[in-house]
């Protein structure tokens, strides 16, 4: 949800999409052209087919895409004074600090209708467009039944075995606090000291601190670990490969990918229209069927489609699955990442 957020999934219907797209031939040659930069790969192909292409067509825009490698490249674009990208797609935990650094144009919420998008999933100059989940995965050849809460995941007597957690503190601090008994509705503001202390308790059982989604799925697939905190899109691909692995949305953590307009864009009005269409319920309703194991951020999307029981079961943001999970607060991380990062690195290194 990249391999720093949000997450990739190979989908056959996105084959043939090029890394850089010029769309759409039906649009007049003089249509305004804007550029969206994302993380590339299968996720970007999926976002293009599911969200961006129909949004651009609806707005009468020609759309190009490029790729970025995170916050540093976004800052370089803006600091150049002449950004070649107009809009970025990036993890919400990256959107929030970039917003604080003044990297974005304000969103015009008279154009961008945010009805149905939770307050925690948007800011003055960014808005979440798709969601992912952090879940508990486990080997079914090791455990007849897996953990249903992070407290059980931390219970090394009930669930002995090798664990894997992410090398990034965002998401892991939340699950550590849930494991320590913090109620979901009281999770934020995060208690940093308590979260780190909870991680210290489980650290002797952490065999691997994974650095990418690809690594995380391989660890549980190969049986190098018995339990893992993992993105649902990654563990689901392992399950589909018939590995003895299962997972649950119970006590999961909901994160987001967001879109924002770069400061200095020459196509701000067009970018507002693209984003407005992307978060509209009608276009968001394409996600559950076309990007399984991701979800829309506009809760009204589920009122727009006649979804099968299978689609609702797999979508992390279906009403039933959403109710089981805790929403992340990217704005907290935008303000406090520096307060956590070094201590988290030291904890892993010790």
Topology:
Elements: E1 33-38, H1 41-59, E2 62-67, H2 71-79, E3 87-91, H3 92-100, E4 127-139, H4 150-153, E5 163-166, H5 169-179, H6 192-202, E6 206-210, H7 213-221, E7 227-231, H8 232-240, E8 245-261, H9 268-278, H10 281-284, H11 287-290, H12 309-314, H13 319-322, E9 326-327, H14 330-349
Parallel strand pairs: 1-2, 1-3, 5-6, 5-7, 8-9
Antiparallel strand pairs: 3-8, 4-7, 4-8
Q: How would you portray this structure in words?
A:
With 350 residues, the chain is of the alpha/beta class. Helix content is 37%, strand content 18%. It has 14 helices and nine strands. It has helices at 41-59, 71-79, 92-100, 150-153, 169-179, 192-202, 213-221, 232-240, 268-278, 281-284, 287-290, 309-314, 319-322, 330-349, and strands spanning 33-38, 62-67, 87-91, 127-139, 163-166, 206-210, 227-231, 245-261, 326-327. Strands 1, 2, 3, 4, 5, 6, 7, 8 and 9 form a nine-stranded mixed beta sheet that branches. Strand 1 (33-38), helix 1 and strand 2 (62-67) form a beta-alpha-beta unit. The radius of gyration is 20 Å and the shape is globular. The model is unreliable at 4-28 (pLDDT under 50).
Average pLDDT figure: 91
Largest sheet: 9 strands, mixed
**How far apart are the first and last residues' alpha carbons, in Å?**
28 Å
Count of helix runs: 14
Q: Please bin the fraction of helical residues.
A: 25-40%
Low-confidence regions: 4-28
- Rg on CA atoms, Å: 20 Å
SSE series: EHEHEHEHEHHEHEHEHHHHHEH
* Oligomer description: single chain
Structural class: alpha/beta
Strands, count: 9
DSSP strand content: 15-25%
Which outline best applies?
A: globular
């Amino acid at each position: 949800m990249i391999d720093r957020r949000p997450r990739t999934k190979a989908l056959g219907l996105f084959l043939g999409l090029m890394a850089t797209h010029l769309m759409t031939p039906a649009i007049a040659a003089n249509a305004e052209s804007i550029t969206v930069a994302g993380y590339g790969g299968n996720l970007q192909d999926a976002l293009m087919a599911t969200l961006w292409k129909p949004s651009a067509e609806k707005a009468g825009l020609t759309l190009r895409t490029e790729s970025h490698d995170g916050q540093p490249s976004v800052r370089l674009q803006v600091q150049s004074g002449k950004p070649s990208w107009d809009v970025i797609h990036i993890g919400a935990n990256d959107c929030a600090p970039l917003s604080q650094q003044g990297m974005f144009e304000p969103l015009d919420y008279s154009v961008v209708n945010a009805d149905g998008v939770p307050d925690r999933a948007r800011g003055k100059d960014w808005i979440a467009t798709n969601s992912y989940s952090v879940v508990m995965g486990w080997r079914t050849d090791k455990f007849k039944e897996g953990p249903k809460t992070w407290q059980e995941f931390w219970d090394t007597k009930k669930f002995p075995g090798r664990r894997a957690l992410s090398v990034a503190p965002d998401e892991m601090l939340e699950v550590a606090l849930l494991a320590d008994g913090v109620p979901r509705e009281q999770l934020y503001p995060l208690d940093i000291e308590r979260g780190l202390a909870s991680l210290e308790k489980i650290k002797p059982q952490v065999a691997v601190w994974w650095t990418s989604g690809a690594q995380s799925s391989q660890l549980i697939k190969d049986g190098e670990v018995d339990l893992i905190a993992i993105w649902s899109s990654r563990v689901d691909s392992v399950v589909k490969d018939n590995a003895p692995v299962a997972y649950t949305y119970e006590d999961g953590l909901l994160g987001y990918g967001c879109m924002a307009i770069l400061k200095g864009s020459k196509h701000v009005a067009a970018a507002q229209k693209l984003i407005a269409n992307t978060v509209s319920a009608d276009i968001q309703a394409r996600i559950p069927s076309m990007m399984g194991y991701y979800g829309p951020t506009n809760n009204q999307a589920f009122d727009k489609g006649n979804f099968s029981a299978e689609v609702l079961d797999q979508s992390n943001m279906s009403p039933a699955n959403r109710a089981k999970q805790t929403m992340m607060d990217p704005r907290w991380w935008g303000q406090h990442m520096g307060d956590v990062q070094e201590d988290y690195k030291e904890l892993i290194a010790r």
